[in-house]
Design brief:
- It comes from Araneus ventricosus (Orbweaver spider).
- This is Protein arginine N-methyltransferase 3.
- This protein has a domain at about 65-195: Hnrnp arginine n-methyltransferase1.
- The chain is about 10% helix and about 30% strand.
- The chain has helices spanning about 45-55, 75-80, 95-100, and strands at about 25-30, 55-60, 65-70, 105, 120-125, 150-160, 170, 185-195.
- It is elongated and about 65 Å long.
Length: about 200
């Protein structure tokens, strides 16, 4: 209908099942990101496609991603998720709290609940990283910008489209950025922790 039938080939299915093309590709563009970037496990497929189908020196977009963490003070959200179990229609169900704490929650976090600057805990270069790079631990310090009771750590990701481009673009899922369907990922603390500004 648009006259591109000789320029565009459509393959429907998993990239791992794609037949070998006649040639490799100059650019791979993929929306593979899950909650907190890595949940849903689609990065494996992107790395597979890169290694099998991208020409040497080709570009992949996004070309790099970062994972960031910051602390929040949101007593209302804490009550909604955790203290709720103290009285469920007249029944004490406090045993449920420990299971709630174990779960990550996808939430649109209000930017004003932040109580420190975010810190990047991982950067992934999609042009070179391996699947094993997604399994990591990180030690970090957060410096409080105000005194309050920290109720959760919040994780989010940024994706960068900036390799060899004159017009660089960042897709951010930060609480300060425009809302996306990824929102942010909230890791509730078992009990709120009182903190002091500057510590």
């Amino acid at each position: 209908e648009n006259g591109y039938d000789k320029e565009i080939d459509l393959f429907k299915g998993r990239v791992e099942d794609m037949p070998d093309p006649d040639h490799k590709f100059d650019v791979i563009v993929s929306e593979w990101m899950g909650y907190f970037l890595l949940f849903e496990g689609m990065m494996d497929s992107v790395i597979y496609a890169r290694d099998k189908f991208l020409v040497p020196g080709g570009n992949i977009f996004p070309n790099r991603c970062t994972l960031s963490i910051q602390a929040v003070c949101d007593i209302e959200k804490y009550k909604e998720y955790v203290d709720f179990w103290d009285d469920v229609y007249g029944f004490k169900m406090t045993a449920m709290k420990k299971d709630v704490i174990k779960e990550a929650n996808v939430e649109a976090v209000k930017p004003e609940t932040a109580c420190c600057e975010p810190i990047t805990v991982k950067e992934l270069d999609l042009t070179t990283c391996q699947v094993s790079d997604t399994e990591f631990s990180s030690t970090f310090d957060l410096v409080m910008s105000r005194s309050c009771a920290v109720t959760a750590l919040v994780g989010y990701f940024d994706c960068y489209f900036d390799k060899d481009l004159s017009h660089k673009v960042v897709l951010s899922t930060s609480p300060k950025s425009a809302s996306t369907h990824w929102k942010q990922t909230m890791f509730l603390l078992e009990n709120p922790v009182q903190v002091t500004e500057g510590t």
